[in-house]
Amino acid sequence: MQTNELLNNYHVDPRTWDEMYSLSAVRPQYEGVVSFLQQMSAEELTKKEELAKRLFMSQGITFTVYSSGEGIEKIFPFDIIPRIITAAEWKYIEEGIRQRLKALNLFLKDVYNSQFILKDGIVPSDMVYSCPHFLREMHGFPVPHDIYVHIAGIDLIRDSDGTFYILEDNLRTPSGVSYMLENREITKRIFPDLIPKNNVRTVTEYPAILHRNLASLSPRQTSHPTIVLLTPGIYNSAYFEHTTLARLMGVELVEGRDLVVDNHRVFMKTTAGRQPVDVIYRRVDDHFLDPLVFQPDSLLGVAGIMSAYRKGNVAIVNAVGNGVADDKAIYAYVPAMIRYYLNEEPILKNVPTYQLGNPEEREYVFSNMNRMVVKRTNESGGYGMLMGHSASDEEIHRYQQEILKDPRQFIAQPIISLSSAPCYLNGELKPRRVDLRPYALCGPDGIEIVPGGLTRVALREGSLVVNSSQGGGSKDTWVLTN
Amino acid sequence: MLSRVADSLYWMSRYMERTDGILRMLRINYASSQDDLQNFSWKPVLSIFTYLDKDSAAAIAHQSRAVLQYMVTDKENSNSVLNIVTLSRENARSVQDHITKELWQCLNDFYHTIRDDQVVRGLYADDPISTLDVLIRHGLLYYGITDITMAREEGYAFLNIGKFIERGVQSAGILDVRFSDLQLDFARTDPSYWKYLLLSISGFEYYLKTYRSGFDARNVVEQIVLSANFPRSILYSINRLQLHFQRLRGDGNQEAFQRIDFMIGKIYSKVRYSTVDSILQQGLHDYLVAIKEDLYKVGIALNQHYFAYS
Fold first, then answer.
1. Structure pTM?
2. Angle B300-B306-B310 (CA atoms, 0-180°, nearest 5)?
3. H/E run at residue B241
4. Does the beta-carbon distance from A271 to B2 stay under 8 Å?
5. CA gyration radius for chain A?
6. What's the first-to-final CA gap in chain A, in angstroms?
7. Cross-chain CB nearest to A258 (options B2, B96, B105)
8. The predicted structure's pLDDT at residue A25
9. What structural domains and CATH numbers belong to chain A?
10. Distances (CA, A) of B96 to A244, A413, B29
11. I need a surface site. Which of A50, A384, B29, B299 has the fewest CB within 10 A?
12. Nearest residue on chain B to A59, alpha-carbon basis
């Protein structure tokens, strides 16, 4: 049968952990999907794939690339085969993230107030003070409920033995959650009945939880606070996500030019005059938020918004200045933070990280470049990275010169192979490397993690970089109930 | 409602109304061009819906395919259907949280359809009417979805205000150009001239039912300016404009409301208490130009009092 061919031609690299196959047997969590795929021909699957593309296009789940004055609509590549996580794996991930976020929130509160962790020498002061995302403007200002990170998208990867590692803590304006929601909707359309048959937990509560958390931050005692989502505008590549979240939460989607600050209060300009704003879920980076405090030429933010924030007249989500906690160099100290603040052993492991600001570690990294990935501490999206195993000597040499100019701005990690998952590419099932980004929401009542997340996949053969800006795609991510 | 959102809804709607007007005009004129003994001229259509100067218009006035291309898919023509559908969709895109998902998807689909190469091929090499019909249908879908899914809130009021200002301006423009084309020669009896004019604004059947005695220029003026029941008449458009603007009463902004309400009421009275005779006495052209200007002034006032945000 042709379908068995589909599965028989699926060859896993024995040195990597595959989400679907262990040695040669199908993992139990994938049995439902595998037996479903066995009834499918390659043509049928290709049709499903085309349907998925059409749905993304017609629903406008796209981002616009502007070239020569003309907009071209692009789809964030979607792979139709879901990625599946067992209940046991999820429980472990959930506990690990909850613990980590608790510590990170305490760290942010500490570092912007008493700085015990610096005084006790757990995290070196120069690490914090040299971080461009450490904002003195936040010092000594009590944020509502002591929550700095309301929304986190923590990236996890799996090594060759299946162990989960934390790759990155995204604590500023993590994106992609709309793809978690939309990918699920698309799967429902292209594979009817498959989700109910497989006991997949729902992700649809995300907007409701987020909305409840946002409302709880309102500085005014009112039953209907005005919540807005601040977007950089329609030219932003995540604009679709901003509109989706605003729509699903029923909040106003605003741009910087819609807001005005008067007497340390934020208002939006409406057809009926000015209306006070209580909570701002902003998708604008810190440095563009307030031209009076940060980048003076920014048109994306609102002049005076930081003063309103510091007066406690408006809540900003996520808090300003979180970048100091998800800095790639500070990352290495998160396990120490967990021990320091919570007196617990970290549940989820860190990837070993070498500080290139430290001469001994730099020495070690330089002599083992081909096993290392070197990253800039303040870049994201897979930019400014060097993958040691695939770079030429020339590239390595040039990169080393860059490092020596300002070693604090770089870290190195041993290359983790990343687990693979089956992808349907050009009529065949192929293993491709994946990571996992669950979305955690912190509110006054605790931390909630919606069972699911965004699985990003490196669609290029052999690639270990899953970022969408580097040719990555995404998958629907299932968390099973049992 | 955010001022920016009201602005975007207003323009989204105006552009869609214009799209519908242009497409219908093109469809009927193309059909007419196939039925004409003389060399059919697109000059009136070009002067209503494009900004071409006399010479450029004259250059393509007798080439149906070139006109269709210019008016539907030309990227350089700021008023081409392609460009205004794109603008309408861009406006919709920035207010997705204020329109229904169905409405957004409808405009998004329209946008993807008109950018498809098939449209160019259809207009240039195939039967253009089939292609125009596909596009017109997208517009009708837009009207239907708006009617069925949009809540009767402030946003809906701005949608309709935009729609009926645009429609009033269009009807006045069409009538003006068609009659000045005749040099106000009311005695012209060629019935197909009136037939195609009425068809292009979907008013042919209604005319036949109302005026049974064949075509008369005075009746055409009456239907397009003064009919209370013809959905593209100037009176009807202003009546609807007034109705939907009333919805904004009590939403704060009292001063602005009263000022614009007065302006609209004045235009309405002017049209409501005109007759064909009084219009012709004043001069049809002057009358229509004055109405267009009044409507533009309402647009400017809305911009000042409701949409200003930067």
1. 0.89
2. 90
3. helix B234-246
4. yes
5. 23
6. 31
7. B2
8. 86
9. 352-414 (3.30.1490.270)
10. 8, 42, 35
11. A50
12. B105
Whether residue B253 and residue A57 make contact (CB cut-off 8 A), yes or no, is no
**Of B83, B101, B144, nearest in space to A58 by CA:** B101
**Amino acid of residue A469:** S
The two three-digit tokens of residue A208, written as one number: 């409701």
Given a contact cutoff of 8 angstroms between Cβ atoms, the answer to whether B159 and B5 are in contact is no
Subunit contact A252:B2, Cβ cutoff 8 A: yes
Residue with tokens 């909707």: A185
Q: Taking Cα atoms as reference points, which of B207, B212, B238 lies closest to residue B223?
A: B207
Give the tens place of pLDDT for each residue, B110-129: 999 999 989 999 998 889 99
**pLDDT class of A1 with cuts at 50, 70, 90:** very low
pLDDT for residue B182: 67
A222-A225-A229 Cα angle (round to 5) = 165
User: How many angstroms separate the CA of residue B258 from the nearest CA in chain A?
Assistant: 13
Between A and B, how many CB-CB pairs are < 8 A? 69
**pLDDT the model gives residue B189:** 59
B248 interaction partners in chain A (CB closer than 8 Å)? 271
Chain A's closest residue to B305, CA to CA, is A271
Cis check: omega of the bond before A368, within 30 degrees of 0: no
* Dihedral class, residue A23 (left if φ above 0, else alpha if ψ from -120 to 50, else beta): left
Write out the two tokens for B268: 């309405």
CB contacts of A247 in chain B (<8 Å) are 96-97, 101
The pLDDT, as a whole number, for residue B194 is 85
Q: Which amino acid type is present at position A153?
A: G
Determine contact: B247 vs chain A, CB below 8 A: no
From the list A58, A252, A258, the residue facing B309 with the nearest CB is A258
Average pLDDT over residues A364-382: 84
Contact A58 B105 (CB under 8 A): yes
**What does the pLDDT average to over A189-205?**
93
With contact defined as beta carbons under 8 Å apart, do A102 and A447 qualify?
yes
Q: Cα–Cα distance between B221 and B283 in angstroms, integer? A: 12
Selecting from B108, B253, B310 the residue whose C-beta is nearest the C-beta of A272 gives B253
The residue among B10, B73, B309, B310 with the most chain A CBs within 10 A of its CB, best to mutate, is B309
Share of residues in chain B with pLDDT > 70 (%):
96
Q: Which residue has the higher pLDDT, B112 or B192?
A: B112
Q: What is the signed CA dihedral for A374, A89, A33, A433, rounded to 10 degrees?
A: 10
Rg (CA), chain B: 19
Average pLDDT over residues B90-111: 94
- Which of A326-340, A367-381, A416-430, B2-16 has the least mean pLDDT? A367-381
Separation between Cα atoms, residue A30 and residue B105, nearest integer Å: 34
Mean pLDDT of chain A: 91
Q: Look up the ipTM and state it.
A: 0.82
What span, in angstroms and rounded, lies between the C-alpha atoms of A82 and A87?
16
Please identify which residue in the block is written with the tokens 């090594």.
Answer: A159
Contacts of A429 (CB under 8 A, 6+ apart): A6, A7, A9, A10, A37, A81, A422, A423
Please indicate whether, in this complex, the C-beta atoms of B93 and A268 are within 8 angstroms of each other.
no
Give chain A's contact residues with B (Cβ, < 8 Å).
57-60, 70, 73, 233-234, 239, 243, 246-247, 250-255, 257-258, 268-273
Query: Which residues have C-beta within 8 Å of that of residue B295, sequence separation ≥ 6?
Result: B165, B168, B169, B172, B238, B267
Residue A252 CB partners (closer than 8 Å, separation 6+): A226, A227, A228, A229, A246, A268, B2, B97
**Arithmetic mean of pLDDT, A182-198:** 93
Which amino acid type is present at position A464? Answer: L
